[in-house]
Write a structure and sequence with these properties.
The protein is α/β, with parallel strands linked by helices. The protein has two domains: 209 residues, P-loop containing nucleotide triphosphate hydrolases (Rossmann fold, 3-Layer(aba) Sandwich); 60 residues, Alpha-Beta Plaits. Helix content is 38%, strand content 28%.
C-alpha cells in the first residue's frame, strides 16, 4: 500500500486584483476584484514505503503548496490525498505522530534556548518513552556529530549547525514519512554533504520514506532514484534520473583530449564548445548527430581520449524549467 497517494490534487487561491493609481485604490475599497491562481493543478502520483523521491520545480511551481497539502497544513481545492492511510486535512493525532515536515527557511527550535530544551519539549509533545528518546537522540547527534552543541543556545549556532538540530528535532519521534522542503538551502558544501550522508544512513537504518524538494542537484543525485518534476502547477515528469536526461536532454556532451595537446581552432563547426583548455575540450551536440560528429572529429584530428555522456543534471533541469516558462508565456500571449 502506498505511503502517499495524490489523485488530481489541486489548490486554487483567490487573489485580490489591485487596480493602478489612487482612483483604482479607492474603487477597490467598494468593489473588489479577484482572480484565481492555480498553485497546483490536478497532479497525481503515489509513493511506496521506503522510497526516496525528489520533487523538483522552479520557484512558484507548486512544490511547497503540495507538501503543505500532504501534511495537512492547507486544504486542497480539489482532488484527494491519502498519506499513511489518513486524509491529511483531518489532522488526526495518529497521523501527525507518523510524519515530519522540515522546511529549510522555517525554524521549529526556540531561538534563545539550547536545542536540548527543544528536544525535551518534543519528547513531551509526542509522549516518547525516555529510553527510546535517549536512544534516538544519541543516534542522531552521533550521526550528525553535534552532541557537543546541543546545550548551546540556538542563536549562537551557525546555519549548518541549526539545520542539523532542526533535522534531529524532526526525527526524534521516528516518523515513517519525512517531508523535506529545501533542507540544505543556504548551506556550504561541507554542511550539505553532512546532511545528505545523515539522511542516506538514517534511511538505510530506519527505512523512512522521504519526499525532498531542493534546488541543489547534488542533493537529488546523492539521495533519490526517482524524480517528480512540477512546473506551473502541473506534474510534467515522474521517473528515474536517467529517464529525465533522456526525455529533456536533447544533447550529448562529448569530452575530447587531443594528442597534440592543443584544441583545434575550428572545433566549433561540430557543435557548441562548452570548455576549451589545456588540450581538452567539451562540445555539446544533438543526440541524433553524436555518431556523425564523433566520426568526423576522429577522421580529422588525433584524439587521445574521448567520452560521450549526458549533460549534468543541473543543465537538464534548467532546460526543463526554461521550456516550462516559455510554454507559460506562450499560453499567456
Amino acid at each position: 500500500m502506498p505511503i502517499v497517494e495524490a489523485e488530481d490534487l489541486t489548490k486554487t487561491y483567490r487573489v485580490f486584483q489591485k487596480r493602478d493609481g489612487l482612483a483604482g485604490a479607492v474603487r477597490g475599497l467598494f468593489r473588489r476584484e479577484y482572480r484565481e491562481v492555480k498553485a497546483v493543478e490536478s497532479i497525481s502520483f503515489a509513493i511506496e514505503p521506503g522510497e526516496m523521491v525528489a520533487f523538483l520545480g522552479p520557484n512558484g511551481a507548486g512544490k511547497t503548496t503540495t507538501l503543505k497539502m500532504l501534511s495537512g497544513l492547507i486544504y486542497p481545492s480539489g482532488g484527494s490525498a491519502r498519506v499513511l492511510g489518513f486524509t491529511p486535512s483531518d489532522r488526526v493525532d495518529l497521523f501527525r505522530r507518523q510524519f515530519a515536515l522540515v522546511m529549510g527557511q522555517k525554524n521549529q527550535l526556540w531561538w534563545d534556548l539550547p536545542a536540548a530544551d527543544s528536544f525535551d519539549l518534543h519528547r513531551e509533545i509526542y509522549q516518547l518513552p525516555t529510553a527510546e528518546y535517549r536512544e534516538t537522540l544519541d543516534e542522531l547527534t552521533t550521526l550528525l556529530d553535534v552532541a557537543r552543541l546541543t546545550h548551546q543556545p540556538v542563536r549562537e549556532l551557525s546555519l549548518g549547525e541549526r539545520m542539523k538540530m532542526e533535522l534531529i528535532a524532526a526525527l526524534l519521534h521516528r516518523p515513517r514519512l519525512l517531508l523535506l522542503d529545501e533542507p540544505t538551502i543556504g548551506l556550504d558544501v561541507v554542511a550539505q554533504v553532512t546532511i545528505q550522508r545523515c539522511l542516506k544512513e538514517y534511511h538505510a537504518r530506519r527505512g523512512v520514506t522521504m519526499l525532498l524538494t531542493s534546488h541543489y542537484m547534488r542533493d537529488v543525485e546523492a539521495l533519490c532514484d526517482r524524480v517528480l518534476v512540477i512546473n506551473h502547477g502541473h506534474l510534467i515528469y515522474d521517473g528515474d534520473l536517467p529517464g529525465l536526461s533522456s526525455r529533456f536532454g536533447q544533447t550529448k556532451l562529448i569530452k575530447l583530449e587531443f594528442a597534440e595537446g592543443e584544441v583545434p581552432s575550428d572545433l566549433a563547426r561540430f557543435g557548441e564548445v562548452d570548455r576549451d583548455e589545456g588540450g581538452e575540450a567539451e562540445i555539446r551536440v544533438d543526440r541524433s548527430r553524436v555518431a556523425e560528429v564523433l566520426g568526423a572529429i576522429l577522421d580529422r584530428y588525433r584524439v587521445a581520449d574521448v567520452v560521450v555522456q549526458d549533460p549534468p543534471l543541473e543543465q537538464v533541469i534548467t532546460r526543463v524549467f526554461q521550456e516550462g516558462r516559455e510554454g507559460a508565456d506562450h499560453d499567456a500571449a
